[in-house]
Design goal:
The chain is mainly β. The protein has three helices and 42 strands.
Length: 492
């Protein structure tokens, strides 16, 4: 496709999510695209760019950009001094930083060649307390670790209760983590829990676009209790063996758009969460209305994951037009007893996906064995236990038009609780092909499950199962294995 702006050809584009850059502020533009071979043109759209008050260069505030001296104070001074609706410009250079804190109504732009490089000395990082107590004993949640309020180090870019912020440009935000520092002994709390690279808590109307974020100490981008968020055209890159380096984890967030993002990470590419049971009893904020489109997920444990910290609920999630490449699992839902009766996963839609070399393309696991109590009998028991205020719920799951090539372990593994079955799974036009030399493995993480290899779809404890046009090739078992299904409509 050719891109035209004001009837002038600007560039050739080959992606379906594209960022137009270097426009003038407060200016009207007419934009259309043209198919190269046929010369067919799209409809014209007219846009007007926003006005900005001032441009503030961080080097005018003393930033060296040499990668040797700490530039934290100069960068923070530029942010604090930037006028309302101003733009903070970070020119080419390597800026060694400890955490910087955002304020509302600003844009930060990283030019080509600009790198924010996280300092490796944790003693220089401020700590965000997990909980602050108010005068009336009310609780203010700030720091977070894996679904609970907890003291954690501030992140390289930290936003607290800010709104109307844009983080854009062609630069790199490098957490500078490695096995020698942040990734060493990763499950142990040392002073405080590891920082993220970008952490947003209580924020509104945030755009992060076009930058590269890499080498994160833990989760790469973590919005918490925030809303109206856009993550567009990002590259999120962490080594395949780096611990807990999820790509993007919206937690108790709403109205989130994740578009055209490339992921190559050491844990889940996208993990949608809403906290553990402790915080859900105090502040029940579900994750909802999250839209994931045209993304490319590579090498993570899961491509799009819901849970397992989901005690405040997850609903209205839409995943479309994405590529999953060599992730352990594709669409993955994980929960367990103990998440609570507000732990509701419902109205989940995934369609028009292509998966390549995904070990198990589809999983729903209601016996996920995380945390210190995760391998107790209460969690792993397959007996029908009483339904109480600790029992989670999974509602309607819809999967459509999905092709999975060279799968290995199982086509799908969906295992609900016997006392509260998965309400409905509807799958239509699904194709799974197993690799000829597939290796055995665990379909998901739960106790007392045997390894599988080239297994078909396994469904257990589902109220309503609807299957249409399902094809599984080269399976070593039956194409469909069903147990404890109350109602079924199967046309394959």
């Amino acid at each position: 496709m050719n891109l035209y702006i004001n009837n002038e050809r600007i560039s050739e584009i080959n992606t379906n999510v594209y960022t137009i850059k270097d426009l003038n502020q407060d200016t009207e533009y007419t934009i259309y695209i043209e198919e190269i071979s046929t010369k067919d043109k799209s409809e014209e759209i007219k846009v007007k760019t926003l006005s900005e008050s001032y441009v503030v260069n961080v080097k005018d505030f003393g930033a060296k950009g040499d990668g040797i001296e700490l530039d934290t104070a100069a960068m923070q001074a530029a942010i604090v001094a930037c006028p309302l609706h101003g733009r903070i410009l970070v020119p080419e250079g390597k800026y060694l930083l400890t955490p910087i804190f955002l304020k509302s109504n600003i844009t930060i732009e990283f030019e080509e060649g600009a790198v924010l490089l996280g300092a490796q000395d944790r003693n220089k990082y401020p700590i965000l307390p997990g909980v602050l107590k108010g005068s009336g004993n009310e609780e203010y949640f700030l720091g977070s670790w894996e679904g609970d309020p907890a003291d954690c180090f501030a992140s390289l870019i930290t936003g607290i209760n800010v709104e109307n912020v844009n983080i854009i440009g062609n630069g790199i935000i490098d957490g500078n983590a490695s096995i020698e520092n942040w990734w060493f002994d990763a499950k142990k709390k040392r002073i405080a829990w590891r920082p993220r690279t970008i952490f947003l808590v209580g924020c509104k109307n945030i755009l992060v676009e076009s930058i590269t974020v890499k080498n994160s100490p833990s989760w790469t981008i973590h919005p918490l209790m925030s809303e109206d968020l856009k993550f567009i055209n990002l590259n999120i890159e962490n080594p395949k063996d780096s611990p807990n380096t999820d790509g993007l984890d919206p937690e108790s967030c709403k109205n989130v758009h994740i578009l055209g993002v490339y992921f190559s990470v050491g844990d889940d590419c996208i993990a949608i969460k809403s906290g553990k049971i402790f915080i859900s009893k105090i502040k029940t904020i579900p994750s909802q209305h999250i839209y994931i489109r045209n993304c490319n997920m590579n090498f993570g444990h899961g491509a799009v994951v819901l849970g397992s910290e989901m005690s405040s609920g997850i609903k209205n999630i839409y995943v479309e037009n994405c590529l999953f490449n060599e992730t352990d699992r594709g669409i993955r839902i994980k929960t367990r007893r103990g998440r609570g009766d507000t732990a509701i996963i419902d109205e989940i839609y995934a369609r028009n996906l292509k998966m390549n070399k995904v070990l198990t393309p589809f999983t729903i696991n209601c016996f996920y064995f995380c945390d210190v109590d995760g391998k107790t009998e209460y969690v792993w028991s397959k007996e029908k236990l009483p339904v109480d205020d600790r029992t989670p719920y999974i509602g309607n799951i819809y999967l459509e038009n999905i092709t999975c090539l060279d799968a290995q372990v199982a086509a799908g593994f969906m295992y609900g609780l016997p006392e509260r079955k998965i309400k409905k799974v509807k799958m239509e036009n699904i194709y799974v092909n197993f690799a000829a030399e597939a290796e055995s493995g665990q379909a998901d993480m739960l106790s007392f499950i045997e390894p599988m290899c080239k297994n078909g779809f396994y469904f257990n404890n589902i109220e309503e199962l609807e299957l249409k046009d399902i094809v599984v090739e080269n399976a070593a078992t039956d194409q469909i294995i069903k147990l404890n299904i109350d109602k079924e409509n199967i046309l394959i």
